[in-house]
Amino acid sequence: MWLEPDEWQGNAEPEQLQVLSAHPAHRLHSQLNYSSLRELYAVANREPVTIHPDDAQARGITEGDMVRVWNSRGQILAGAVISEGN
């Protein structure tokens, strides 16, 4: 019997955002995190989080802001990158 997961793309409440985690482009997961490549992607010395311009504007987030991303299992601080995506 299939049970609907607690979280899945499309079931967020209107004020919530869905987090999608892409494979890092410049490293193998957390490996090489302290390499010179970190300067290419770090935002305010944090991992980047990409947010759509409409969602950023609704929350008062600007490029480079440090933002808190959280759910019931934990939280991180990340640097905001505003983009319409690929």
From TrEMBL:
Its cofactor is Mo-bis(molybdopterin guanine dinucleotide). SUPFAM superfamilies: ADC-like. It is an enzyme of class 1 (oxidoreductase). Keywords: Metal-binding, Molybdenum, Oxidoreductase. GO terms for cellular component: outer membrane-bounded periplasmic space. Its EC number is 1.-.-.-, 1.7.2.3. This is Biotin sulfoxide reductase. It comes from Escherichia coli. The gene is bisC_3.
